[in-house]
Design a protein that fits this description.
It contains eleven helices and 17 strands. By secondary structure, it is an alpha/beta fold. It binds zinc ion. The site of zinc ion (ZN) has 6 residues, from loops.
Length: 412
Amino acid sequence: MGGIMKRFEHARLIDGTGNRPQDDATVIVDGSGRIAYAGPAGGAPATPDASTVDLSSMTILPGFIDAHVHFLFGPKPSGPPADSALTSFHVARRMRDTLAAGITSARDLGGLSAGYCLAQESGLIEAPRLLSAGRIIGHTGGHCDATGPDGHNATGHFTILADDEQSARVAVRTVLREGADVIKICATGGMGSPHDDPDDEDLSEAEIRAVVDEARRHRGKKVAAHAQGTAGILNALRGGVASIEHGYGVTDEACDLALASGTFLVPTLATAFNPLDPSKVSPLHFEKKSRWAERTRENIALAISRGVAIAMGTDAGVSPHAANLLELAYLVQLGMTELQAITAGTLNGARLLGIDDVVGTVEVGKIADLVITDADPLTDIAALARPEHVRMVLQSGIARRNTLPARASVNA
Ligand SMILES: [Zn+2]
């Protein structure tokens, strides 16, 4: 990870901690890709050997963290059926595009095998830092079971079924053996699944508690629960999960439980607000999605106003890839300040993923995952989702995207 020292000057710094922006800040990245200084220009040490970049009228932010993606899912390419090699190349491109959009870390909650994570770690592919759940755990006939009445398994190989506490424990052990970094369960039905409704319960509270305990016994792995209807959200919260994914049916009672336990909510508004084309999905899917649209707005706005800890997640793969930062604008639409939305997409994501000791904020000693924008995210947060405004993305101090004007670099 060797490189030359980089010095960014005259930037506005939004450091991800929730603190107000600092004008005319200097950020210094050392040769190992760590942040050596971040603060007022006047306090910055001299760095005669650094490559210096003038960021007048630009803003430095931490690299963003998407806590809920599915890199395996995406638009189906036309033409002959894809073989697994082609699938890998499609996934690698989605990952590279997502990184270039400013997402320097991501948590894949279903579908992604551990090999992709190893490929990222070893530098074979340019991708966000990855945590992956591998296969999703749910019960027979539930959200992750698309088996047809004739027994045909349309689900693919990204789920594992469990129907009692013991089989739920075995399922956790199985996905851990396959390399899972985090456990993903279904606590409710969903929009796209053929046999259930978002208000249906999936794993029971006792089964969820068994999953959480089994994950805890293995280096304290965390559990993320797909939970849309209220009953399943309450089961998941009482069962001790680390995050409620979607959470569209969240209530005051659920907010009380989440606040008491510090459980995160990942509202995936990018998917909730992503309109479906009725000609491309089943009538049941379309009907469920339409029925939940207004409920979702009201309930997530309630959770935001109650101060529940929220981490940014998009469900990209169900929503479009590489448009992840639109989620920040949706969070603002439902009541967050721009600064709160940025914290949801940086520090809070890092805390939920358990990587806040190394990334998530622009602070001395952390890895230099940075986003540089020419937009003003505090007045136009949606601009962060437009590629032309993401001028530079650094990961471990290495430029993964750079469209800064050549004049910006004084001494490169
Ligand atoms: Zn998902």
